[in-house]
Specification:
- The two termini are about 25 Å apart.
- The longest helix is centred in the first third of the chain and has 16 residues.
- Helix 2 packs antiparallel against helix 8 and helix 6 crosses helix 7.
- This protein is an all-alpha fold and about 190 residues long.
- The protein is built from 9 helices and no strands.
């Protein structure tokens, strides 16, 4: 019979408690890629007025990046750049960047975090907002990378006639990327556990 920890506050927990808890945490962490892929599929629904839904847009962005020879990390970033749209209507880029941050380079994290501000140039003027909001980011070392991402892979990915690669092509990349975090306060523990 498995012992169930009985503390009511973490400060009252013991090493023995975490000998019970930790295997569950490891198993849960191992299913992260499955949860991310399931969350991505939540974008496959209502169009929100766009020519394609957000799921198709995500597949188009990833397809364009892959066909352009980008590395797997970058392609996964393209695939997941709008994953926050499901629950982050007003801050989707923040959510996507937060999910990706432990697993990607600082440059790719910054690119995803700020892609919305640069994408604003293409439509904010239509809704009465400042289309130049991204200009404040000029001069940052990752500005050009983010600008290129928007122009090459985000902006042109609303095409209902575009042939896209199926999610199955990208799944191994997603699974590999989310196997092991590299930028997290848990990194040393993850390295020791593997």
């Amino acid at each position: 019979m498995t012992r169930i920890p009985s503390f009511t506050r973490l400060e009252d927990s013991t090493r023995e408690d975490f000998e019970v808890i930790f295997p569950h945490e490891v198993a849960y962490a191992a299913s992260l890629a499955d949860r991310i892929l399931a969350h991505l599929k939540l974008l496959d629904g209502e169009l929100g007025g766009y020519p394609v839904n957000r799921y198709t847009h995500s597949l188009q962005s990833a397809t364009l990046a892959r066909r352009d020879g980008r590395d797997d990390e970058y392609v996964v970033c393209a695939l997941l750049h709008d994953i926050g749209d499901v629950i982050g209507t007003y801050n989707h880029a923040d959510l996507a960047a937060c999910v990706l941050q432990p697993f990607v380079s600082e440059a790719n994290h910054w690119m995803i975090l700020h892609h919305g501000e640069l994408q604003a140039y293409h439509f904010f003027h239509h809704i009465g907002l400042d289309r130049h909001i991204g200009d404040a980011l000029k001069g940052h070392p990752h500005y050009q990378r983010t600008h290129d991402f928007v122009e090459l892979y985000d902006n042109p990915a609303f095409d209902p006639g575009m042939e896209v690669l199926p999610l199955e092509v990208f799944e191994p990349m997603v699974r590999k990327l989310f196997e092991r975090p590299v930028r997290t306060m848990y990194a040393a523990h993850v390295k020791a556990a593997s």
